[in-house]
Amino acid sequence: MVIDSVENNFINFRFPEEDGFLYGFNLYALVNGIDVLLIDTAFRTQARQVNEALTSRGLRLTHVLLTHFHPDHVAGLVALDPKITVLGSPEYKRTLVKEIPQTVTHVSFSEGFKFGEFDLSFTPVPGHSPCSILIDINEKYLHAGDNLMSRYDGKAILPWVEYHEIASHISSLELLKAMNRDKVLLGHGPALLNSSDINQAIDDRLSYLSAVLRSSGNCSWEDAVSGCTCHFAGKEFFEQLVQ
Ligand SMILES: [Fe+2]
After folding, report:
1. Could you give the CA distance from residue 208 to residue 224 in angstroms, rounded to a whole number?
2. What is the DSSP letter of 76?
């Protein structure tokens, strides 16, 4: 695990891919005094390491905010205190497959959430999952969850989406693009820190998803990625999508 400071009171925990895995994990923590809000938990192993690192610094994990409720983002809750406040989309039950020990508090899309010096606001972006949200942090950073994914070294990963949700995922990526941001944080892979990289990353995913949708799921790999400027890591998500 690599620990970096994004800014004062804003920590990044990075986990490279383990052998045989397509992606690693990227967790962000906001600090308010000794209290910490962690965005996503990854699996138990990563959650435990983050919790221990926080404790060793005299901090305590009080909140977990979830970009969405897929296992690689929520499973770590099992290793954390049941009394932690867990925040996430009102749609979370459509995604969560295993019980977690904490109660989930719905985020408010109209009022946001304040944590110390951090003003957070949320935008629903269904597609990757019905409960996916964007998290705006002080109108400076935007956490895009898994709307954009990459490997630890930044190599692009295909969008993961079920076929019947492709149109939703496209709409959510178009919404993200229209926000015209210049600092986007990801759950997998390094942050994108300029608007041209962000636009290109979005356009590549849009091109791929639109090609698959236009073909009604009957296109070749070459046709699916013919409009993309990047080379996506792995074809697994494509093969699952068109099978
Ligand atoms: Fe994920």
Report:
1. 5
2. G
In a domain, 54, yes or no: yes
For residue range 69-111, list pLDDT tens digits in order. Answer: 999 999 999 999 999 999 999 999 999 989 999 999 999 999 9
Backbone region of residue 158 per phi and psi (left: phi > 0; alpha: psi in -120 to 50; beta: other values): beta
CATH of the domain at 51: 3.60.15.10
Residue 112 lies in a domain: no
46-52 average pLDDT score? 98
The domain containing residue 209 runs over which residues? Answer: 2-107+118-242
CA of 146 to the centre of ligand 1 (A): 6
211 CA to middle of ligand 1, Å?
A: 23
Query: Residue 200 in 3-state DSSP?
Result: helix
Number of domains in the chain: 1
In a domain, 113, yes or no: no
Q: Give the environment of ion ligand 1: residues with CB less than 5 A.
A: 72, 146
